[in-house]
Amino acid sequence: MAEYDVIVIGGGPGGYVCAIRCAQLGLKTACVEGRGSLGGTCLNVGCIPSKALLHATEMLHEAQNNFATLGIDAGAVSVDWKRMLGHKEKVVEANTRGIEYLFRKNGVEWIQGWGQLSGPGRVRVGEELIAGRNIVVATGSEPATLRGVQIDEERIVSSTGALELTAIPERLAVIGAGVIGLELGSVYRRLGSEVTVIEYLDHVTPGMDGELQRGLKRALEKQGLKFVMGAAVSGATAGESGVALNWTARKDGAEGGMEADVVLVATGRRPFTAGLGAESAGLTLTDRGFIRSSHGRTDVPGIWAIGDVTEGPMLAHKAEDEGIAVAETIAGQKGHVNYDVIPSVIYTAPEVAAVGRTEAELKEAGRAYKAGKFQFMANGRAKASLATDGFVKLIADAGTDRLLGAHIMGPAAGELIEEICVAMEFGAAAEDVARTCHAHPTYSEAVREAALACGDGPIHS
Fold this sequence. Notes:
By secondary structure, this protein is of the alpha/beta class. It has helices at 13-24, 40-45, 47-65, 81-106, 159-162, 179-190, 210-222, 316-330, 359-365, 380-384, 413-425, 430-434, 445-453; strands at 3-9, 29-33, 109-112, 115-117, 122-125, 128-137, 141-143, 156-157, 171-175, 194-199, 226-229, 231-238, 243-249, 255-260, 262-265, 269-271, 303-305, 344-346, 351-356, 369-375, 391-397, 403-410. The chain folds into three domains: 3-143 and 270-330, FAD/NAD(P)-binding domain (3-Layer(bba) Sandwich), CATH 3.50.50.60; 156-267, FAD/NAD(P)-binding domain (3-Layer(bba) Sandwich), CATH 3.50.50.60; 350-453, Enolase-like, domain 1 (2-Layer Sandwich), CATH 3.30.390.
């Protein structure tokens, strides 16, 4: 029986990062993954392929709408869907092969197959039994289902199927106005689909800042996306020519419906523990199916859990941070994750990014705060780039000026948020950001102006 210091079950962002860090710290490490390629949902059928299509269709939008304004005559622009999907597949392959290289470089053994907990310090992979002093469960998540809607990955698809459609649908219905639904809805709208988003709540992107929610919805409506808010989907029936989708209004019970060529079910994700043997191994599952843990430690000594299979935001970078922290803890170091500084990004156009507390959360907690806001309309670089939709909003403690959160909608929001993440990690005040020199002309100047707005006021508005 092969023996290891650490066995990681799952080769997604949390699992592969944990495995690499364990090996770097001198621990004999194996990673069990049955998908056939490393990288998990993120690299194979999630973050990476969706960003490839988002980028491609953003370029299409620029060519169709902004090139002429910039003085570029590119003529008629058309889409070769097969080649676009081919680009996506090449990006996926390059990333997954890169993880294989990193495993070889760091001495991580990849055991191909599905791992099952099999007694103390034991993992079964097919007919093989392997032993590990520590076992890290990083099995990730899977698309959540919806009662009355049967996913077939042809007419009624999850995010996985939406990345593999053989043709661009004329009519696309998206159930759920969260990150996945809005990103993929944006992709197909730019490709020419009529996109209708049906959301149970009265706002998009649940949990985000209210101004971001309203601003993003307006921006997407200008791009042609249609929204049906406060609607509970009651059923979807696939036929030869399309899908009949039905819903009921939450407030007055009025019934509605539509016909679509394809329906995307984007109602979130749930932890994936099928076949793991979690409960028989003594692990405690919550009512929602998450493995109960604290800083990676489960109820069973020697078994750890990280990433989407545990409670918290289902984000690849959260899983990566947990993977590193658990690896360092196993190695006797002081592994730590600051859960107050985990950013989230929506890769629509404009991008949306957030970190820390929202105004609603602070009001509910009764905490005094101040907010500084700056519109990209007043930013020179944004004007030159024809990317003036959106704003930067910083939130700071009313008494200490310490940064509590940031909410950005606009160009490169996912990059700009990191400045505030670093500032918050080191306990910076809004004034610290305001007094830091920012290069001109850059989008980042909007961040500085928002910080100035927390004090005596911005310069350029």
